[in-house]
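[job 4417] fold queue: 2 targets
>>> target A
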Amino acid sequence: MKRNFFVFVLIISTVAIAQSQKGGGLPFPDSGDVTLPLDEYNKLLELASKQTRKPETPPQNYSVQCAELKFRVENQSVLGSVQLEGEVFKKGVTKVPLTTGMTTFDARQDGKGVPLQQENGTQTAVLNGPADFSIELKVGLPLRIEAGRASFSLPAPSAGSVRLALEIPGEHTFVNVSPGLITSRGSENRKTTIEATLVPGQPATIWWATREAVTQVVPKAARFLSDVKTLISVSETELRVAALADITVVQGTPSEFEVDVPPGYEVTGVTGASLQSSDVHGNTVTLKVDAAAQRHQFLISMERPIVDSKGSAPFLSFKNAQRETGEVLVEGTGTMELTATEGSSLKRMDVKETSPYLRALAHYPPQAAFRFHRQPSEVPSLALAWTRFPDSSVLAAVVEDAVVTTMVTSEGKSLTEIKLTIKNQAQPFLKVALPAGASILSAEVGGEKVKPVQGSDGSRVPLLRPGFRPTGSYEVSFVFMHSGAPFAKKGGSELSLPGMDVPISLLHWEVFLPERYQVKDFGGDVIAAGLLPAPFREGGVMSGQGGPVRAGIGGGIGAGTGAGTFVLAGGRLEAKLPGQVGGVVVDPSGAAVPGAQVTVTNTERGVTRNAVSDAEGHWVVSNFPAGHGKIQVDANGFKTLVQQMNYDSARPAEYLNTLNLGTVSETIEVNAQAVPMNGRDYDRLQQFGGLEKNTRKQAANAASTNVLNLQRRMAGVLPVAIDVPRTGTSFQFARALVLDEETKVTFSYKSR
């Protein structure tokens, strides 16, 4: 080995001497000296002049990054764990504060015990660093229980983030945390769980409602009465039950009630003002309530599928009730024949006698009603059987009211206007079967003109027009002319209305005859309007759109204002109840005045009622005492109207309020004349002979607004030339329930 090393040194020396002899390289410097470029030398001087940097030290010796708190409430304590994660920056031993205000049972890191010290009430861990740490503490806190409330104070550790998971006995318990933010709530297995984020370093107060008392006392035995009102609905696929339970506690403070649910039924909902939570276990529903309340009300809904056309009605029963009573109401959806057979303590009753709260739950007409008082040895039973029928088709259109006005000339020609208030779902045309010699002159839908259509099987009037799709009632009208036969000096005549393929609830027909003829012996398939029952007279349409019309006792419609008349505004007569005062506000032309301020005052008692007239001029006030009073009506652009009245609350009346043009500062005071609402004067007409006895009164009646409007339309508006009678006598007739058939009236006449 020494020989090899000597040979290597010799070779190197020989090579170096050979290179120096060539003269191509720089000479080697002497020992101890170094040759450097000037730039490199300056850089070395600059580096030598800089001071050496000392290593940086952290601003603090440790850091607690996050804290995870998990607690559960057990008896009178709050137990759980605190998981702290962080880092020690300082080399060597460092004291790290962990928790304050908690009782610590154990402290561990990586499964090994951690030494703790207590300094000023703070648990401190002694840790080596620099290193990360993760410490788990087993801790406990005291629980404060007050009347109706439980709470505890939780000191949040000083960490970057603090998260809490808390488990409390009882389902759906409402827990409050302050300060802090609850991020989730859950309830299962009779326990409530919350998750929250706390403010680091600040104590959080956590509380919830509880039924535990401060001092434990021996509770009294609970005694209560139950009254269950049950609605049973038989639908196409399900048997639904809605039970309105009323519980009255007579002794003790029960905190929960148990309800037996019939087999096969699914509970779909439980609500109640005092209800805190509800649990369903098998066929039992547990209702947890506020024990301080002495009365509880619950609405329990359940249902089961229908597999056949019969079944037994279910009855809910509260366990340990001292007395159980109730009512049962049965309804069916759709078209069906439903039979209910009662048994045991169940007794049938009138549907009208059932509780109004129970009837309010029903969506369809009730079929049967029962009541029961459950005895200890008896169980009420109700057997249901039903037969379902297919639903019939719905009418496409129906006429609520028909107002017909006919003018007859001395030449025997007749001009008739028919106004229909119609509800239409989908019918496009009205088929009109005109009598021979008649033709339609014009037609309107919703106030705009439309063109009638002539078909092979009769004329048709459009019921709709482009862009017009009403959702409620609207008006369709048409005018037709009939050639008729000229009048002689005396004889008989017949007028007829066409059949229409839409059902008409009530038809009112006014016939205006020339004044030169005296008529009698009316006949046909109509009756005098005065013979209609009171509800039809009051609900019927008796006027046109021109303003209020007054129907006299003679059966015709005139313009008289004497006693014993009906005031009809906007086309309808409003019936009043005892203690009500109403009226209609119109202008001098008879048009309705909406938005008028009406003040009704009883001057004897100082009672005042206020109202505002609607779009049709109507107004009404209630609970007005009898006695002397006044009505004051104010409207923009009109003089103030003050009407004196003597009101009888047992005989309600309407008043006609006619305003004159002027300013509000001007006042007109008159005596108000009540218009009776019962129409007793019509009862004098018992048969058509009554119409003959009142012929002289009818002859004195002028034409109604409908006739006047038709006369104006004839003057250059309708495409026909006809001698319009300016004076004459109006007669009014009526017919109910008309469908696809003619309506006729006959009479005899003679020239005056």
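>>> target B
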Amino acid sequence: MTSSLLDTKLYAPRRPKGLVSRSHLTDRVRRGTQSKLTLVSAPAGFGKSTLLAEWLGGAQTDGSVTAWLSLDSGDSQPVAFWMHVIAALRTVAPTVGAKALTLLESPDQSIEAVLAPLLNELNALPRDLVLVLDDYHAIDSPEIQVGMAYLIEHLPAQVHLVIATRADPALPLARLRARGDMVEIRAVDLRFTRDEAAAFLNGVMTLGLTTEDVAVLEGRTEGWIAAIQLAGLSMQGRDDVAGFIARFAGDDRYIVDYLVEEVLQRQPEQVRTFLLETSILSRLNGPLSDAVTGQEGGRAMLEALERQNLLLVPLDDRREWYRYHHLFADVLEAHLRDERPDDLPALHQRAAEWFEGNGERGEAIRHAIAAGDSERAADLIELAMPASGRGRQEATLRRWLDALPDELIRARPVLSNGYAGSILVRGETEGVESRLRDAERWLELMPGEASGRPAAMVVADEDAFRRLPGALAIHRAGLARLRGDVAGTIAHARRALELIDANDDLGQGAASALLGLAYWTNGDLEAASSLYAGALSRIEKAGFRSDAIGVSLALADMRIAQGRLHDAMRTYARGLEIAADQGGIFLRGAADMHVGISEILRQRGDLVGAVRHLQQATDLGEANGLPQNPYRSRVAAAGIRRAEGHPEAALQLLAEAERVYATDYSPEVRPVGALKARVWIGLGRLSEARSWARERGLSAEDELDYVRESEHLALARLILAEGARENSNEMIGAAIDLLEGLQGAADGGGRTGSAIEILVVQALARRAGNDVPGALASLERAVTLAEPEGYVGVFADEGAPMAALLRLAAQGRNASSYLRRLLAATVAPAARTPIDQPLIEPLSERELDVLRLLESELDGPDIARELTVSLATVRTHTRNVYAKLGVNNRRAAVRRAAELGLLSRTGDGRPGA
């Protein structure tokens, strides 16, 4: 949108001339700014915008500032909406929104992540700010409503929102009403009283009506301001006013139609024609009006209409841009359609040409579609596609494309490929194949044409056409990946790498990442990680930081599977650098980096550091995480709780992780079911683990593959545990055989991280089978592979059986410091951290968790979220803590706990379960 058109949306209307003062309503608006939201909700023509304009005339007397945004249907797209909201805010607070605007350009940002830095900046403002959103009924995007609900929920105390709308928005109004956070002004409040109607008709319009005439008009319109205004216009210069009033009757829509007809009939033909022909425009100025009407003098006409109070609303102080009152425009356009339907295409065509020539491609597309000029619209859409992709306007692009005839799209290879991409970006596959084939068909025909290009083929964006073969290959690879076709993904991604220009960093990076995903799925981690490292470099170089963060996360996962913890840690650290800016605000994905660091630190035996980074991830919030962050953070917390000796708490977290799991393009190599099965086995709940194995269709005779490696390792643990319970050498032998198969596959795929864990379990299995030399050989190899990277958790998690085996390994030789460290780590957590409590009735584990959080600044609901329990459960535990400590409030509980030394024992900040 050009600067001039955007300015019209940000223009706060001035108090109209001849206004009937409505101080009782402006006072309500003013008082409402002490709450979060003022909702002005009424049908069209009830004076919502006029009321706010009158209020604005005195709003600055209290030192506050007001930002205004007039909305229309073009704003019902998340990126456009929030860009315009920020533009409005910056008219009165120029320093806010820079970070949010950057985040809006990133395709994978949640709206919470976008709004968080904006809210922080608003919170730092030195004075009160009011944001007015007019015509909010134009917004029908559920995604925008979610963002608005988040914005309202987290509004700083000095920021207030005013929404003017014809219909109640899909926001949590009941909750706001119940909390006292909303002031409402509705149609019943806005209707003109009889005195106000008289003041308008006789004072403003000087009609000299009798009290009885005013009473009839007010009664028949029921105080509907637009109808009263139109009636006043109709009566100006009329001799038979009483007769007009006597004939004036009917329902609301009839009243407006009747009155507009009366107004139109009383205008000179030139004015009437101008009104009808320009009614197709949502905003108009002199040059645009001249272009659409084919006449000159548009600016003078607009100025004359404003002087006549003919329902024209100025949109800037320069009186350059205007719009018609919405009701007036609706009826004018309806008259145009009824009276001159054949002229509509030409009018829209002229509007499209003017907007195109003035750099307003979106408006040009809208009018071209309305004109039925599909060829022009297709050209414009094709040229707009690159900017649409960068600006996250996929929904708008898809709506435009859906409006075009199918045969026209099929004749345009660039447009067909863009259509396929608009489907794939939503994770859908239906319709992609046919669109790709349409584009590919033209490329196949090209060599057979003497001119080098088929005559029936249409191309508007020549640069995009030159890059089309590579773009098609990318989409082919993406389609194959979504279908689970690994071989197809590899073939098309390789083809893309060959076709895409070597200097095209984004294209080369995307193709490399898709190829890496395929190799990762096949278990070839060396090839996958090499490709991903290259993709990370190219995508970061291209400036797509959010994509680079996602690639960093996947690359770190591969490094961990390879047993390269140092490299994984460096990758996470680099991801944090990419995510951060100088203001200390993070892009989406920063939380995931902290979760990953937490898991590596836990694996290295640093539980304090692991907890600290997991808390940092929590502080950033899931809104600053990628789609799998809720799952990953709970899995990480479960690992910590298990390492602390709380397997039941770990199971609760894993159950929650399973519930919030979200699929993505990466292979699911660490399913929650396998993690739960391992905990069940450790607790001796073998029947639950066996039920899981049956549900998954697992067998020791399965053909092994990387994607199910974690599940088969859990199965080997289960068979081993069952064999030990039944004293069955046969079952133990079956477990060893399965482990040897897994070991060979891990070694072949360069998955040292997997190999270390498999060797650890293999050592325990051979010990259970009384093969001590074999057990020590497996252990020795595991230790050799693990020591350079500092592994601890993989050994410590096995507990007493591993401690016994490590002691055997240390006999008869000087144990290395690493071996001694592993031995110390396998001591039971309870033995390392005694929890003696000088209380008659000790606090339970859960009560200790609640006590630790009582020391923090978290309130009850926050503590419930931290512990993943209900608020009622938190209150029950809190009452128990008070009773056992002999206190009756939070501060006394913390003080008493500190005196007893209880907080020092829970002060490691471990996450709740």
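[job 4417] complete. Note on B: The CA atoms of residues 726 and 732 lie 10 Å apart.
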